[in-house]
């Protein structure tokens, strides 16, 4: 049952306070400038209550984006990986700065698009423009915050981010080492004063794991009997297990047998309670090997590229690298063409010649 009360303020201006009472639910109230709006709201709330679609409508009118973002930071972010927490705290801080003062119900798609466009035009603290993929990450965390506010907190029923298309992202960098470059790099790493560099690079090339995933490895994450390593904390916040075969397995096995350190880390620093730093050793090795335009992360691309060129399917590569979607692996599709030709040739042979 809905009750609409007409009120007047000191200036004689009218407003309409609506109360919706329904057995089994708390009283819902809201105030409107027009009686028509008050009546329409009452109808919507009664319908939502009866059909189990009710949310706390008044929350979106009383709580601000600061409230929403602060709660998200307090309750949701701690469930994510350490790196994600750092990155998304900064991103959410930006949204607080520009729209934090707005009530939740005031935030429309047009406002978010305007803010996104300004973010795209601006520069980082390093003086560089943000890429479309970075802008999409800013949008992604806000989208998720709204979804949590809808599904778990019942603060609103609308997600203005859901109606905004993602910016087109580049396919990403696919620089990988040629065989001569690979040979020169491994030789330079073997001769490096950085004691762990050669083994770290071998593991990166063999498994496609990221630098931080390798450097943070502990012996408890490695099962030499099963010939696997487990990445406990990956970039996307999920663990995965990767086979370790061939030369990479031999390197780890030898290190386990002959390394006298009692460090938990496989690749430890001087104090043994922290992982090693290979930054200077890597720069020297790249220079010594005379390899241009190559970063450590490109070892991951090198591994994926060689997987593709040796017959691994895109699904195989996605599983090894820990890609959440096959779209992330599509950049290696062109290297997979020889394997695809063989599959098609076999199919044609069986279809038409057998």
How would you characterize the overall build of this protein?
- With 354 residues, this protein is mostly helical.
- The protein folds into 3 domains: 2-54; 65-163, Orthogonal Bundle (DNA polymerase, domain 1); 179-345, Intergrase catalytic core (hpI Integrase, Chain A, Orthogonal Bundle), CATH 1.10.443.
- Helices cover 49% and strands 8% of the residues.
- It has helices at residues 35-51, 57-62, 65-75, 82-99, 109-121, 132-151, 179-190, 197-207, 211-215, 246-258, 279-288, 298-309, 314-321, 337-352; strands at 2-8, 14-20, 28-32, 222-223, 228-231, 240-243.
- The strands form 2 sheets. It has a 3-stranded antiparallel beta sheet with strand order 1-2-3, with helices on one face. Strands 4-5-6 form a 3-stranded antiparallel beta sheet, with no helix packed on it.
- The protein is elongated and about 85 Å long.
Index terms:
hpI Integrase, Chain A, 354 residues, DNA polymerase, domain 1, three-stranded antiparallel β-sheet, mainly alpha
In the CATH hierarchy, what is the architecture of the largest domain at level 2? Orthogonal Bundle
Enumerate the strands of the largest sheet in spatial order, edge to edge or round the barrel. Answer: 1-2-3
Beta strand count: 6
Question: Spans of 5+ residues with little confidence (pLDDT < 50)?
Answer: none
Residues in β-strands, percent? 5-15%
What overall geometry do the principal axes of the alpha carbons give? elongated
H/E element string? EEEHHHHHHHHHEEEHHHHH
**Roughly what percent helix?**
40-55%
CA-to-CA gap between the ends?
76 Å
The class by helix and strand makeup works out as: mainly alpha
């Amino acid at each position: 049952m809905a009750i609409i009360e007409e009120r007047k303020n000191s200036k004689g201006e009218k407003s309409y306070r609506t109360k919706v009472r329904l057995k089994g639910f708390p009283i819902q109230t809201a105030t409107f400038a027009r009686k028509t709006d008050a009546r329409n709201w009452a109808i919507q709330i009664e319908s939502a209550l009866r059909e189990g679609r009710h949310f706390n409508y008044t929350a979106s009118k009383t709580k601000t984006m600061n409230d929403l973002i602060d709660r998200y930071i307090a309750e949701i972010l701690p469930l994510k990986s350490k790196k994600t927490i750092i990155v998304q705290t900064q991103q959410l801080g930006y949204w607080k700065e520009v729209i934090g003062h707005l009530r939740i119900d005031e935030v429309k798609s047009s406002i978010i698009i305007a803010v996104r466009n300004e973010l795209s035009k601006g520069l980082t603290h390093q003086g560089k423009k943000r890429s479309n993929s970075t802008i999409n990450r800013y949008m992604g965390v806000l989208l998720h915050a709204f979804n949590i506010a809808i599904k778990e907190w019942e603060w609103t029923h609308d997600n203005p981010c859901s109606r905004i298309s993602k910016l087109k992202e580049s396919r990403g960098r696919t620089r990988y080492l040629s065989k001569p470059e690979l040979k020169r790099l491994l030789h330079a790493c073997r001769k490096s004063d950085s004691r762990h560099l050669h083994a770290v690079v071998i593991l990166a090339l063999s498994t496609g794991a990221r630098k931080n995933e390798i450097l943070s490895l502990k012996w408890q994450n490695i099962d030499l009997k099963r010939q696997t390593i487990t990445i406990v904390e990956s970039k996307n916040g999920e663990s995965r297990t990767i086979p370790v075969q061939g030369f990479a397995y031999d390197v780890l096995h030898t290190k386990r047998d002959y390394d006298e350190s009692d460090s938990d880390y496989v690749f430890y620093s001087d104090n043994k309670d922290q992982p090693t730093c290979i930054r200077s050793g890597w720069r020297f090795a790249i220079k010594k090997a005379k390899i241009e335009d190559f970063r450590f992360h490109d070892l991951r691309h090198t591994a994926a590229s060689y997987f593709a060129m040796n017959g691994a399917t895109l699904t195989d590569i996605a599983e090894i690298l820990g890609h959440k979607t096959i779209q992330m692996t599509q950049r290696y599709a062109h290297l997979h063409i020889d394997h695809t030709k063989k599959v098609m040739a076999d199919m044609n042979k069986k279809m038409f010649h057998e």
